[in-house]
């Protein structure tokens, strides 16, 4: 029987510290502490605390917030991939009498954490970071509509990530899978599921507000002449993605609120007794969960739609059909959620409807693939690193899409649903679609964000390790799935499956080499940044408005709001011999930095932590502090300032000198 919670510390006891009895966690903790000390020492030695606080933590510049989203995604990606490597090594060992090196309870935590981190705290920050950075630049705006909200959204997302990471060293994480499906009915009373609930609730608030912000930005802040059907495709995909976010994340919030009531107040929404029904939760989580897949992949499609025309040196084939395909996918993504549980007894009629809608949604996706192929057809293709990632995506994603159509057939799904085939399919579309797009996008827009290109050689090495590693890692699960090997299992009795798992583990090692090459690429490029410097602001001879600014862009983005006449506005301006204005600059009105977003988000994170551990005094205190901090912020009237015209003139004069220098090189 568990002892009653402490009045102040709640459920925290010495047993809550896993380092005391888990050597893997202990060594991880030591490594994290040492790494943290190195970072703190570096910040102190180079006197970076002030700039870090003023220019980054308190920043409401959409470009810096976008970069911080990308950094958050990269840090969490390393954690999520560490979980993946641990699982792959364990599965390669845990066959027959060998039980592997992870206890089943620890394995279940790792596989839950891997899924949660990779979707919510890797893929989401990556695509949100790209949208934050690029959308205002692409539509000719100076910032997003609600700059403070942008800062607050980022720190709420970070707060959710902090709670998930904290579960590694205090308490435990959920063991019920990335959508918490296996704890329904009879729920685990431990803190693992509570970490899951509060981590996602805190991060979900940030994502929802970010979605509202970007929709309003795209609708209300486009440059003169940029009608909806003249927007870059990436901005179109961002608009559709954020519409999905605003429509679906409240459903996730509601499902988690009801689960919280079940756990904290003893209600029976999702239990198997007193009128509850766990299928209600399964429906709610997947009505959010399937649009979430498109929330991730639509911006990825947008990235490829920017890269292909640039490196094929042709206008995107079928712009209008590409826009319609994006909108159709957005709408249809709401009509397919039940294909995630064909096996749960909805009946033949319902299964048939959702099977057909799932097949239909593959049609606009296929249309996009053909649009990219036709854009490349007879183009003068430059095989740069972003273009290689794009071609790798087209091959990989096409195969992943075909296995998806196979799973859309209910009788086939009955056979394959709970097998490793499904795991392979999901990774095929998310890695082949989203992760490849992220690496393509980083290589493509890095010179815009930091003013120097990334080294090509290490980028190509990373690409080839990733592409080969992916197929070596995920072809065996396809085969095992067809053989009937089930997913979510930490040990297998049949020794004949072991060679497949060993090959898959080797594939994970190849992917690790690809990640290492990417990190080396960042380091080597930084060392050689002077020779890789981009003075033109347009190193790829690209087509959209973000390339009309310097690299990196000034704080105000554009000294004069650009005017768009064509779909590829910057390409059209270059074609007609556009000349930058060199005089007549006026003061520019800009929003001022504030610490309020960071403070309120960290208080929200503290509130989540207190609720996880039933620390009621801290929960009440932090909730009161959130309300107080919000009220105080409403009385802050120092929200904006003007960049003097002289400063704008100086920045533009520097840009003129850089362009002249680039012309002589």
Write the layout of secondary structure elements.
Layout: H1 23-45, H2 49-57, H3 62-93, H4 104-138, H5 147-166, H6 192-220, H7 233-264, H8 278-312, H9 319-332, H10 348-376, H11 385-407, H12 410-416, H13 420-450, H14 456-482, H15 498-527, H16 569-575, E1 588-591, H17 596-612, H18 616-634, E2 640-643, H19 645-664
Antiparallel strand pairs: 1-2
Explained architecture:
It is a single chain. The longest helix has 35 residues. It is built from 19 helices and 2 strands. It has 665 residues and is mostly helical. It is globular and about 75 Å long. A two-stranded antiparallel ribbon has the order 1-2. The N and C termini lie far apart (76 Å). The chain has a domain of 447 residues: Cytochrome c oxidase-like, subunit I domain (Cytochrome C Oxidase, Chain A). The model has no long low-confidence stretch (mean pLDDT 92). 48% of the residues are buried. 66% of the residues lie in helices and 1% in strands.
Give a concise summary.
This protein has 665 residues and is mainly α.
Keyword list:
single chain; 665 residues; mainly alpha; Cytochrome C Oxidase, Chain A; two-stranded antiparallel sheet; 19 helices
- Which CATH first-tier class of one domain would you pick? Mainly Alpha
The name of the CATH topology of one domain is Cytochrome C Oxidase, Chain A
From the N-terminal CA to the C-terminal CA, the straight-line distance is 76 Å
Assembly form of the protein: single chain
Order of helices and strands: HHHHHHHHHHHHHHHHEHHEH
Percent strand equals under 5%
Number of helices: 19
Helix content: 55-70%
Structural class estimated from helices and strands: mainly alpha
User: How is the main sheet built?
Assistant: 2 strands, antiparallel
Which superfamily, in CATH terms, is the homologous superfamily of one domain? Cytochrome c oxidase-like, subunit I domain
> How are strands sequenced across the largest beta sheet?
1-2
* Level-2 CATH architecture of one domain: Up-down Bundle
Mean pLDDT value: 92
Radius of gyration over all CA atoms, rounded: 25 Å
Query: Care to count the β-strands?
Result: 2
What form results from the Cα inertia axes? globular
């Amino acid at each position: 029987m568990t002892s009653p919670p402490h009045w102040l510390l709640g459920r925290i006891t010495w047993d809550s510290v896993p380092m005391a009895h888990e050597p893997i966690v202990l060594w991880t903790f030591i490594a994290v502490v040492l790494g943290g000390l190195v970072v703190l020492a570096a910040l102190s030695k180079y006197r970076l605390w002030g700039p870090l606080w003023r220019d980054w933590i308190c920043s409401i510049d959409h470009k810096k917030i976008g970069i911080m989203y990308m950094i958050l995604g990269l840090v969490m990606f390393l954690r999520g991939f560490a979980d993946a490597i641990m699982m792959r090594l364990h599965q390669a060992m845990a066959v027959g009498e060998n039980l592997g090196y992870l206890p089943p309870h620890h394995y279940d935590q790792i596989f839950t954490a891997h899924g949660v981190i990779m979707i919510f705290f890797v893929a989401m920050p990556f695509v949100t970071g790209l949208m934050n950075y690029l959308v205002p630049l692409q539509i000719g705006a100076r910032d997003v509509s609600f700059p403070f909200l942008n800062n607050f959204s980022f720190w709420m997302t970070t707060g959710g990530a902090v709670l998930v990471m904290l579960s590694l060293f205090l308490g435990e994480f959920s063991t019920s899978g990335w959508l918490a499906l296996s704890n329904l009915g009879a729920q685990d009373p431990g803190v693992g599921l509570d970490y899951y609930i509060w981590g996602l609730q805190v991060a979900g608030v940030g994502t929802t507000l970010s979605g509202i912000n970007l929709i309003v930005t795209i609708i209300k802040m486009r440059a003169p002449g940029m009608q909806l059907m003249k927007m870059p495709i990436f901005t179109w995909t961002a608009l559709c993605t954020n519409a999905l976010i605003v429509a679906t994340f409240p459903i996730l919030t509601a499902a988690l609120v009801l689960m919280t009531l079940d756990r904290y107040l003893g209600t029976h929404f999702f239990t198997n007794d007193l009128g509850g029904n766990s299928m209600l939760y399964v429906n709610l989580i997947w009505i959010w969960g399937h649009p979430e897949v498109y929330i991730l992949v639509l911006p990825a499609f947008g990235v490829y739609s920017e890269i292909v025309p640039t490196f094929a040196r042709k206008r995107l084939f079928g712009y209008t059909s590409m826009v319609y395909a994006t909108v159709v996918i957005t709408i249809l993504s709401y009509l397919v959620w039940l294909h995630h549980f064909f096996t749960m007894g909805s009946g033949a009629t319902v299964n048939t409807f959702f099977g057909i809608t799932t097949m239909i949604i593959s049609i606009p996706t296929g249309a996009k693939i053909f649009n990219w192929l036709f854009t490349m057809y007879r183009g003068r293709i430059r095989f740069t690193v972003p273009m290689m990632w794009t071609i790798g995506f087209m091959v990989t994603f096409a195969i992943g899409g075909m296995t998806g159509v196979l799973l859309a057939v209910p009788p086939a799904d009955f056979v394959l649903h709970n097998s490793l085939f499904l795991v392979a399919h999901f990774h095929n579309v998310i890695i082949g679609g989203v992760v490849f797009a992220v690496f393509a996008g980083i290589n493509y827009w890095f010179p815009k964000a930091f003013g120097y290109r990334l080294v090509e050689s290490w980028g190509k090495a990373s690409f080839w390790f990733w592409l080969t590693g992916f197929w070596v890692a995920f072809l065996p699960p396809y085969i095992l799935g067809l053989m009937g090997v089930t997913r979510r299992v930490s040990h297998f009795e049949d020794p004949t499956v072991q060679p497949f798992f060993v090959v898959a583990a080797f594939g994970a090692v190849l992917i690790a080499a690809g990640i290492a090459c990417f990190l080396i690429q960042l380091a080597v490029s930084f060392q050689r940044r002077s020779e890789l410097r981009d003075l033109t602001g347009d190193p790829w001879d690209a087509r959209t408005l973000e390339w009309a600014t310097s690299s990196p862009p000034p704080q105000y983005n554009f000294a004069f709001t650009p005017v768009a006449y064509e779909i590829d506005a910057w390409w059209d301006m270059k074609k007609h011999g556009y000349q930058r204005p060199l005089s007549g600059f006026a003061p520019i009105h800009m929003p001022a930095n504030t610490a309020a977003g960071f403070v309120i988000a960290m208080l929200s994170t503290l509130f989540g932590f207190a609720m996880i551990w039933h620390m009621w005094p801290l929960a009440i205190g932090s909730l009161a502090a959130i309300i107080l901090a919000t009220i105080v912020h409403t009385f802050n009237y120092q929200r904006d300032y003007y960049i003097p015209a002289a400063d704008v003139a100086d920045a533009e004069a520097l840009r003129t000198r850089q362009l002249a220098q680039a012309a002589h090189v």
